[in-house]
Design goal:
The complex is a heterodimer of chains A (251) and B (273). By secondary structure, chain A is mainly alpha-helical. Chain A is 81% helix and 0% strand. Chain B is 38% helix and 21% strand. Chain B has a six-stranded mixed beta sheet, sandwiched between helices. In chain B, strands 2-1-4 form a three-stranded antiparallel beta sheet, with no helix packed on it. Classes of the chains: A mainly alpha (251), B alpha/beta (273). Chains A and B meet through α8 and α9 of A and α4 of B.
Chain lengths: 251, 273
C-alpha cells in the first residue's frame, strides 16, 4: 500500500487527462478550440525540441531570472537595513505597501516611456514588482527575529553589528525565502504579460498570444503548459535551495 | 574544574582568603524598576552570597525573572547599582540560561558550535574554542552527539547544551531563569541532578529563578523569598543539607520543615495581594 502512496499526485493528472479526452471524444467543445491532449503534447514536444517554443521558453527563463536577480540584489540589503530599524521601516511602510498593492501591469506604459520597447522594460517592471515583495519579506524577517535569540547573543557580549550579522540575518532567512519564492512567481507573471503586449517578438507570452491569433490551438496549449512547467520548476528550485540552506526553517 | 577565587583589591593574603569565603559576591543597591504604573522594585537592596546556589521564589508577577534580567543586563534598571566584587557587569564573565531553550539556541549552528559561540564573540581563536568546548563536555561527562542541530535533540538535551554554552566561558556567576519549566517531569528530575552535579563540580555562584518550591529548596543553599510588588526580601532562608542530595533528601524532616516554612511565607504573601 505504501508503495502506491507516491503515485497519489498522479491520480489528479490522470483524471484531468481522462476528462479532457472524454470531452474531445464526445465533441462537447468545438475541436478547433479544444484539441486532444495528444495533439497538444505533441505540439509541445515538437515545439520545445525542434520548433520556436524552446527558444521562447529560454527567453522567458532568462528575463525572469534577470528580473529576480536584480530584485534580489537590491531588495535584500535594503530589507535588512529597513528591518534593523523599526522606526525606519514604519516611515516607509506605507510606500512599500502602496506600491506592492499597485498592479505592476499598470506601470508598463511608464516603464515603456522610460526604457523603450525591449527587454529592459520587461525586466525592469518585473524586477520592480519582485523587489517590493522580497523587500517586504526580508524586512519583516529581520524585524520578527526572536527576541530571546537576540537577547541570548547580547547576553554573551555580542555587539550590535554582530547581533545583526550572526542572529538577525539568519533569523530572517526563512522569511527571505518566502519572499524569493513569491518574488520569482510574480516576476514570471509580469514577464509573460509583458511579452504578450509591448511589441514583443519572442517569449512564452508572445507565443501564447500569437498561437491564439493564428488559431493554432495545440500550439497555444503547448505554450501554456510550458509556462506552467516553468512556474512550477522555479518554485521547486527555490524550495530545494531553501531546504538545503535554511534547514532549520519551521523547526 | 576547581573554583578560582576572583582577583581582589590590594589586601593582605589572610584578610583576602577570609573575605573570599564570606564577602558577598554581588551587591545590589537602590534598585528601582517600574513597568507603566506598576512599581516592581523600589530602592531594593540585596547581597548575593558567593559560591552558593541561590533560588528566587515569590508570588506570580512579583518580579523574580525581572530581578535576574536586570542583574544580567537584559533589561535596563530605572535606578540603582549592581556590582560584582565591586566591578560592573561589563567587566565580568557570566552565563545566562533561558527558560525557552528552543528560542535561545541558534538552530543554524550545530550543538558544538552553539556551545562555542560565546567564545567566538570573545575573540577566542578557533583551535582554542574547540579545546575549551571539549573540556567542558568532558568535565560534565555529557553523552550527547554534539554534531546534531539543536532542533534534532530532546528538550532536556537542548537545555543541557544551553547550560554548557553558559558555562564554557568559565563564568563567575550563572543565572538560570526557570530553566526546567518547559521540560516534562522525568526530564526535569534528570536535569536537576545535572545542575546539582555541575554546581558541586564548579562551585560557581548560581542564581536560579524557580516557580517550583520543591525544586527551589532541593537545589539551593539559600532561598530568597520575595513579597508581592514592589518586591521586598521577606526572608532569606538557608538550607545546608549536604550534597549530593538525592530523592531521599526530600523525605528528610529538615527538608520538609524548610519547605513548609517557605510555603507558609509564600501563602501569607499571596493572601496580602
Amino acid at each position: 500500500m505504501k508503495r502506491f502512496q507516491i503515485l497519489l499526485p498522479f491520480v489528479g493528472v490522470g483524471v484531468l487527462l481522462a476528462i479532457w479526452s472524454f470531452v474531445v471524444w464526445l465533441r462537447i467543445v468545438d475541436p478547433v478550440l479544444l484539441p486532444s491532449p495528444a495533439s497538444a503534447f505533441r505540439a509541445m514536444w515538437n515545439g520545445m525540441f525542434s520548433g520556436k517554443l524552446g527558444l521562447d521558453f529560454l527567453k522567458t527563463v532568462e528575463r525572469t531570472l534577470y528580473a529576480t536577480a536584480i530584485a534580489t540584489v537590491i531588495a535584500i540589503p535594503l530589507g535588512i537595513l529597513l528591518g534593523s530599524s523599526e522606526k525606519l521601516y514604519r516611515s516607509v511602510d506605507f510606500l512599500i505597501d502602496f506600491f506592492r498593492s499597485t498592479p505592476a501591469s499598470a506601470l508598463f506604459p511608464l516603464f515603456l516611456a522610460l526604457f523603450g520597447v525591449g527587454d529592459r522594460t520587461k525586466i525592469s517592471v518585473a524586477a520592480f514588482g519582485a523587489a517590493l515583495v522580497i523587500l517586504f519579506n526580508v524586512a519583516y524577517g529581520v524585524m520578527n527575529a526572536r527576541k530571546t535569540r537576540i537577547l541570548a547573543a547580547r547576553v554573551m557580549g555580542a555587539s550590535k553589528a554582530r547581533v545583526l550579522w550572526d542572529v538577525m540575518l539568519l533569523e530572517s532567512l526563512p522569511q527571505t525565502f518566502v519572499g524569493l519564492r513569491n518574488g520569482v512567481s510574480l516576476a514570471l507573471v509580469i514577464v509573460v504579460v509583458a511579452e504578450m503586449f509591448i511589441g514583443s517578438v519572442d517569449g512564452l507570452g508572445q507565443r501564447v498570444f500569437e498561437a491564439q491569433q493564428m488559431f493554432d490551438m495545440p500550439d497555444m496549449y503547448a505554450a501554456i503548459f510550458a509556462a506552467g512547467a516553468l512556474g512550477y520548476s522555479l518554485n521547486l528550485l527555490f524550495l530545494t535551495i531553501e531546504r538545503r540552506f535554511v534547514h532549520w526553517s519551521g523547526k | 574544574m576547581t573554583a578560582q577565587p576572583a582577583p581582589l583589591r590590594e589586601i593582605s593574603p589572610q584578610a583576602r582568603s577570609a573575605s573570599v569565603r564570606t564577602a558577598p559576591h554581588v551587591t545590589i543597591r537602590g534598585l528601582s524598576k517600574r513597568f507603566d504604573d506598576t512599581i516592581i522594585y523600589d530602592n531594593f537592596d540585596f547581597d548575593i552570597p558567593r559560591g552558593k546556589l541561590m533560588s528566587v521564589f515569590g508570588p506570580n508577577g512579583c518580579g523574580k525573572s525581572t530581578l535576574i534580567n536586570m542583574i544580567a543586563g537584559l533589561f535596563p534598571m530605572d535606578a540603582g547599582e549592581v556590582l560584582f566584587d565591586g566591578q560592573p557587569l561589563s567587566k565580568i564573565k557570566f552565563g545566562y540560561v533561558f527558560q525557552n531553550y528552543r528560542e535561545a539556541m541558534f538552530p543554524w549552528l550545530r550543538a558544538f558550535d552553539n556551545i562555542a559561540y560565546p567564545l567566538k564573540v570573545m575573540g577566542v581563536p578557533k583551535a582554542e574554542r574547540i579545546v575549551r568546548v571539549e573540556k567542558i563536555v568532558a568535565s560534565l561527562n555529557v553523552k550527547i552527539d554534539l554534531n546534531l542541530y539543536p532542533y534534532k535533540m530532546s528538550g532536556g538535551q537542548q537545555q543541557l547544551v544551553s547550560i554548557m554554552r553558559a558555562l564554557v566561558v568559565d563564568p563567575e556567576i550563572l543565572f538560570l531563569d526557570e530553566p526546567f519549566s518547559a521540560l516534562d517531569y522525568e526530564m526535569t528530575l534528570f536535569m536537576r541532578e545535572q545542575l546539582q552535579r555541575i554546581f558541586v563540580e564548579t562551585s560557581t555562584t548560581m542564581v536560579l529563578v524557580s516557580h517550583d518550591l520543591e525544586e527551589a529548596v532541593y537545589l539551593s543553599d539559600r532561598i530568597l523569598l520575595l513579597s508581592r510588588h514592589p518586591a521586598r526580601v521577606v526572608e532569606f532562608v538557608p538550607y545546608d543539607a549536604p550534597r549530593p542530595r538525592t530523592e531521599r533528601t526530600m523525605s528528610d524532616s529538615d527538608f520538609i520543615a524548610i519547605k513548609a516554612h517557605c510555603l507558609d511565607i509564600f501563602q501569607r504573601e499571596v493572601r496580602k495581594g
